[in-house]
Write a structure and sequence with these properties.
2 domains, 15 helices, 11-stranded mixed beta sheet, MacB_PCD, 56% helix, 13 strands, 16% strand, ABC3_permease_C, transmembrane helix, two-stranded antiparallel sheet
């Protein structure tokens, strides 16, 4: 199906002035490209931030022990507070009306981890059975830890994806033994790989579960050695059923811990949802800056379209006069010039989208960011930009239609 003669004529008219048309397109291309790149990088940043926050638990409150490493300072602190305990987690669960499950975690300071198939430099933690659900961790093979494992002090472990590959290369680890320091453990599960791409988010460490060995918290407390005056647990996650109350609940937990710990500043509260909101606030500032740059580019592009259209009117006065003399109406002249403007705007929109996509991936590759696309906003933005360019062409088209045919022919 061929192009209609009227549209072909408009394309040929612009093609005869290739350099001028290209220079006119540049403003639109840069403006649309900036908007497309901004949306691609912005959407990628939003999804990446959401994925990272979900790894912490979007509806969780995380309480982290922050006891000093200095022994004298630690003794002074312990005179007022025994440190973070499971009793603190239960108290927080009892105080908050919308609190759900909680999970405790204790880091193990291990020196060696190996099996009959290999060794690895991995981290180890004792965790409550609810830890995997609250941290959005999925078991790929075998099973997760259970309450029975915890109650019976079972010598079992769940491995992260990377740890399983290093400790049991080329073989299925389920049911096999590994040794963590002096303790033998039987592997009952392997976690699915979850590559977050970053080691931390807004200053909070994440993503280490891939290179991790998880054992039941009670088993860890009973089977491994700990230093005197250590916290019973290093952190706990508390799920809140109503996400709108996370901020108030966090303040309430802070007051509760302050009372239970005698005013000692030995805990830190982390609310992943607030981290996400802070990240999005920063992203909005970035979007405003990029949007302003794009708006300037579009303004320049619109002025460029107006300039070329006015130049076309001046150069084609005789053509306009002849058309009017043989019976063309003013509306016919307006449509003729607007058709050329549509070709320019449509071309600028298509090239701008392609340029914006290339720019987004270039920025992502240089800065280490991710790119994601939401087609409808991009198409709407490109369409709006094209309409802005088209609006700038209305005045020149009306100027062409207002020319007196006789004066136009004489002027030529």
């Amino acid at each position: 199906m061929g192009i209609e003669p009227a549209w072909r004529e408009a394309i040929e008219e612009l093609w005869r002035r290739k350099l001028r048309t290209l220079l006119t397109l540049l403003g639109l291309i840069f403006g649309i490209g900036a908007i497309v790149a901004m949306q691609g990088v912005g959407e990628g940043s939003r999804r990446e931030a959401l994925r990272m926050v979900e790894s912490l638990g979007l509806h969780n409150i995380i309480v982290q022990a922050s006891s000093p490493q200095n022994e004298d300072a630690l003794k002074e602190l312990r005179a007022r507070s025994v440190g973070l305990t499971l009793a603190d987690a239960r108290a927080a669960q009892a105080v908050l009306p919308d609190a759900g499950r909680f999970s405790g975690e204790k880091d193990l300071r291990v020196q060696s981890v190996f099996s009959d198939y290999g060794s690895a430099d991995v981290k180890a933690s004792g965790v409550s059975p609810e830890y995997f659900d609250l941290s959005s961790l999925r078991v790929a093979r075998g099973r997760a830890l259970t309450e029975t494992d915890n109650d019976t002090l079972a010598a079992v472990a769940v491995l992260g994806h990377q740890a399983a590959g290093e400790l049991f290369p080329g073989t299925d680890p389920i049911g096999k033994l590994l040794k963590v320091d002096h303790v033998w453990l039987r592997v009952v599960g392997v976690l699915a790989d979850r590559d977050l791409g970053k080691d931390e988010f807004q200053g909070v460490s994440l993503g280490s579960e891939s290179n991790h060995v998880f054992v039941p918290l009670a088993s860890a407390r009973a089977r491994f050695r700990f230093q005197p005056m250590e916290d019973e647990i290093d952190r706990f996650l508390l799920h809140v059923d109503d996400p709108s109350r996370l901020g108030g609940d966090a303040r309430l937990i802070g007051e509760l811990l302050n009372q239970r710990h005698g005013g000692a500043d030995d805990t830190t509260l982390i609310v992943p949802q607030q981290l996400y909101q802070q990240s999005q606030k920063t992203q909005r500032i970035f979007s405003v800056v990029m949007g302003s740059i794009a708006a300037v580019s579009l303004l320049v592009g619109g002025i460029g379209i107006m300039n070329i259209m006015l130049a076309n009117v001046l150069e084609r006065r005789r053509e306009i006069g002849l058309l009017r003399a043989v019976g063309a109406r003013r509306n016919d002249i307006i449509v003729r010039f607007l058709r050329e403007a549509v070709v320019i705007c449509a071309s600028g929109a298509v090239i701008g989208i392609l340029f914006g996509a290339a720019l987004a991936y270039s920025i992502a590759a240089f800065a280490g960011w991710s790119v994601s696309w939401a087609p409808i906003p991009i198409l709407l933005s490109a369409g709006l930009c094209a309409l802005i360019g088209l609006a700038f062409s209305v005045y020149p088209a009306r100027q062409a239609a207002a020319l007196d045919p006789i004066e136009a022919i004489r002027g030529e």
